[in-house]
């Protein structure tokens, strides 16, 4: 196999960190991104970059020529918001996976690594979620991720393409988009608190999540790209040691910013999962995974990154397709 890798979403948070690592390891990186949620400043100058929409199958076919490996991270990934923008979000989750996958099969790609999401699991009867749990996605985004995985399995098995499905949890760290009002709770809180505004919390804030520092995910993805014993595997990636409420997350951020915290509580978001944590046992076994960065240290690094760039207004740049009494006011009235 040659060391030419095609990375989608390469101007985004995760895709750009993977591109950096692959360059360090001596790979030739071809990257695409339509810059809808990513930034040119994230793109490593040593990669061959194409500003393209992954929906463009003809372009995907052209650009992917000669690549043996695909890491597909491009996505418009606001989980809760997808209930109010199902056409746009699924087109940019499932739709783009179909074009990237189709081009991979046509180009004789040998390895396809897909970045799914824990939204695939949906509302589970027990935690932590393991890879063999029955998937019950509760949002169009979760459905689109799971459907993508299923078609990847079909096309890759038929065409003899080695494939692996990686399932990150909630990631945080430098380069995360902090002006997106639809996702990335820690980044939104930091951006607001740095503007002197109280964080907005949906529901009672007692919903629990496990956050992964980005380098802890990068390490797993790197292993998945390099190893050859993971064909057909679905693997949760990221830590499962720290399980925190959104209230605790806000407190940790406020402590670091020396901010007098009095959160603004608003109505629950529809279909939000209360307890979401994935088991990392399979990653420990197959990827030799171990958590290297605690949540507290991850938050510190992220704050440094946002301080360096400066706070910014939130950008409401995705279509709100369903605007009715079910739509959270934060999005209807753009109050974040
Ligand atoms: N960040 C997390 O907490 C998290 C958790 C679980 C899964 N994931 C998954 O990881 C992947 C990367 O997420 P991220 O956090 O880096 O998001 P991100 O928004 O920072 O990066 C995604 C990139 O995809 C690009 N993109 C979107 N639609 C596109 C299209 N049609 N054509 C070309 N480019 C397009 C965006 O411009 C962006 O740069 C996604 O597949 C996401 O579902 C992320």
In CATH, the homologous superfamily of the largest domain goes by the name: NAD(P)-binding Rossmann-like Domain
Order of helices and strands: EHEEHEHEHEEHEEEHEEHEEHHH
* Small-molecule binders: nicotinamide-adenine-dinucleotide
Helix content: 25-40%
Mean pLDDT: 97
What do these coordinates show?
There is one protein chain. With 336 residues, the chain is of the alpha/beta class. It folds into two domains: 4-171 and 212-237, NAD(P)-binding Rossmann-like Domain (Rossmann fold, 3-Layer(aba) Sandwich), CATH 3.40.50; 177-209 and 241-276 and 293-332, UDP-galactose 4-epimerase, domain 1. Helices cover 36% and strands 16% of the residues. The chain is built from ten helices and 14 strands. The strands form four sheets. Strands 3-2-1-4-5-6-11 form a seven-stranded parallel beta sheet, sandwiched between helices. A three-stranded mixed beta sheet has the order 12-9-14. Helix 5 (185-194) packs parallel to helix 7 (246-257), helix 5 (185-194) packs across helix 9 and helix 7 packs across helix 9. It is globular, with a radius of gyration of 19 Å. Bound molecules: nicotinamide-adenine-dinucleotide (NAD). Nicotinamide-adenine-dinucleotide binds at residues 9, 11-15, 32-38, 53-55, 73-77, 92, 96, 115, 117, 168, 170-171, 177.
């Amino acid at each position: 196999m040659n060391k030419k890798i095609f990375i989608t979403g390469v101007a985004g948070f995760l895709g750009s960190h993977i591109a950096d690592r692959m360059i360090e390891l001596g790979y030739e990186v071809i990257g695409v991104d339509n810059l809808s949620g990513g930034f040119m400043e994230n793109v490593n100058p040593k990669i061959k970059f194409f500003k393209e929409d992954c929906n463009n199958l003809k372009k995907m076919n052209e650009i992917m020529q000669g690549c043996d490996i695909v890491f597909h991270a491009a996505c418009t990934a606001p989980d809760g918001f997808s209930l109010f923008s199902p056409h746009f979000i699924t087109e940019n989750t499932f739709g783009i996976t179909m074009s990237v996958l189709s081009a991979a099969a046509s180009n004789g790609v040998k390895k396809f690594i897909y970045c799914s999401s824990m939204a695939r699991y949906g509302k589970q009867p027990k935690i932590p979620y393991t890879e063999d749990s029955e998937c019950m996605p509760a949002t169009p985004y979760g459905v689109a991720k799971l459907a993508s995985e299923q078609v990847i399995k079909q096309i890759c098995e038929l065409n003899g393409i080695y494939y692996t499905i990686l399932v990150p949890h909630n990631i945080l760290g430098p380069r995360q988009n902090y002006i997106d009002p639809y996702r990335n709770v820690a980044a939104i809180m930091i951006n607001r608190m740095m503007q002197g505004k109280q964080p907005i919390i949906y529901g009672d804030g007692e919903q629990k999540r496990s956050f992964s520092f980005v380098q802890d995910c990068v390490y797993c993805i790197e292993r998945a790209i390099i190893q050859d014993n993971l064909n057909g595997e679905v693997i949760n990636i990221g830590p499962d040691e720290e399980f925190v409420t959104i209230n605790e997350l806000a407190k940790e951020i406020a402590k670091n910013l020396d901010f007098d915290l009095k959160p603004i509580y608003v109505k629950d978001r529809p279909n939000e999962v209360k307890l979401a944590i994935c088991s990392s046992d399979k990653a420990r076994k197959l990827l030799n995974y171990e958590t290297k960065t605690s949540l507290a240290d991850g938050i510190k690094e992220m704050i440094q990154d946002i301080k360096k760039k400066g706070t910014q207004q939130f950008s409401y740049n995705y279509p709100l397709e369903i605007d009715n009494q079910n739509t959270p006011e934060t999005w209807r009235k753009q109050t974040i």
